[in-house]
Amino acid sequence: MSAAAPGAPAAPATRPRLALATTLGVQAMATLSLTAPSVMAPAVAPLLGVPPQRIGWFVGLAYLAAMFSGLAAGARVARVGAIRMSRLALVACAVGLACGAAGGTSEALMPLIALAAIAIGCGYGLPNPAASMVLAVHAPPTRRGLFFSIKQSGVPIGVGLAGLVVPPLLAAMAWTWALAVLSAACVILALALQPATVLEARAPSGGPPPAGLGATLRALVAPLKRVWREPTLRRLGVASLAFSMTQLCFTTFLVSYLKLELGRSLAAAAGVLAISQVLSVACRVLWGQVADRWVSPLRLLAALGLAMAGAVVLLGVLPPDAPPWIAMAAALACAATSMAWNGVYFAELAHRVPSAELGTVTGGTQFLTFFGGMIGPVAFASLVGVTGSHGATYVGIATAPALVGAWLWLASRER
Which DSSP letter does residue 210 get? Predict the structure, then answer.
């Protein structure tokens, strides 16, 4: 059912441009909020007296929070409203960044940094279920692959903006004030989304909320059970877990790897991250077109899994004296694969699931996606502590997308 909020006029049949701009902007800002601490890590970690790889635990905690906020969002987006939920996501990110800024002002307030990770993660878990519901209504059915790919380009856009914006902010002010500036930007965007409420698509009453703790827990777990029960959805969920793990390891540790092991400056390392995201934006759109026109999404996901494994290995085996263009080429290969699969994945979901159920199913599959985002950085940080090498750890991480890519390829041949 597609209707506006109680007492509001019904949503128009389609507003594709507004829907795309809104969902893209929210995704980019949420990603910027989550990525900024990773870009800051090489410069800020020594000030806090912790090793830079500890950022993996921050990101892992954020993704743990995102797992459950996304699961709850999938079950509630039809009742709360997709645009309202998107604005709540930005407010949560703003609160998290503000907590991080406050936590850096004194040793007594440092526990607020953990709270910052939780708040940012809660905000990061909300946009995908909300955006899936908006685009399922407003995107042209024959162009869903393209629309979802463009919307998911908010991820590399956010990562690229972090690489471009954070170093100048750190050069101009204390890192705590830099976080405060980013927090204010989240609030401004949340306020600017007021006109987008015309996109709302939800039941007029939203349905009654679950009664009692048991009913609430069953409603929370229902999307995950639905995904795990259906083989096609389960396959997509597991693939997103492995690919997300690879993606987060690439973006979380690339700046630290280039600075600490390959001797690049912080600005140069962040610049490589930012430039790589430009290519990933283009590739997300390209892969969306390919999935719409020439190759089945499942087979394309399989090929991307195998390709990202090779790209990550290439990144990991770079020697310390590697020329800058080789390091850039390796980062671009990782961006074109590990950062560009998401739109094809969401388009495949949209083809498999009725639009009225897409928000719920997205919340369930996103639980697995964010589980990969949680364990990837934590495992990477732990392995770096053991091996003392970011490069060797990148090579080890490549095993996951290689195995899943081969599995998807076999599944695509059986269909």
Answer: P
Q: What are phi and psi of 401, to 5 degrees?
A: -65, -25
Q: Are 29 and 332 in contact (CB under 8 A)?
A: no
**Phi then psi for 45, rounded to 5 degrees?**
-55, -45
The chain-wide mean pLDDT, for the chain, equals 85
- CA dist 367 and 384 (Å) reads 26
Write the CB contacts of 75 (distance below 8 Å, at least 6 apart in sequence). Answer: 219, 220, 222, 223, 360, 363
Nearest to 261, CA basis, from 318, 320, 327: 320
Q: Which of 327, 386, 360 is nearest to 80 (CA)?
A: 360
Q: What residue has token string 């306020």?
A: 191
- For 218-234, write each residue's pLDDT tens digit: 766 777 788 888 888 88
Q: For residue range 1-21, list pLDDT tens digits in order.
A: 334 444 444 444 578 889 999
pLDDT at 74: 67
| Rg of the chain in Å (alpha carbons) | 20
C-alpha 99/C-alpha 49 separation (Å) is: 19
Residues 6+ apart with CB under 8 A from 317: 391, 395
CA distances to 195, 362, 368 from 125, rounded to whole Å, are 23, 11, 12
Amino acid at 260: L
Instruction: Kindly state the average pLDDT of the residues 349-356.
Output: 76
Q: Specify the 3-state DSSP secondary structure of 149.
A: helix
pLDDT at residue 188 in the model: 97
Decide: residue 137, CB within 10 A, 0-12 exposed, 13-18 middle, 19+ buried: buried
Task: Please give the Cα distance from 262 to 391 (Å, whole number).
Answer: 10
Dihedral sign, Cα of residue 28, residue 32, residue 34, residue 35? positive
Q: What is the DSSP string of 242-264?
A: HHHHHHHHHHHHHHHHHHHTS--
H-assigned helices in 49-81: 55-80
Do the beta carbons of residue 18 and residue 199 sit within 8 Å?
yes
Helices (H) and strands (E) in the chain, counts: 17, 0
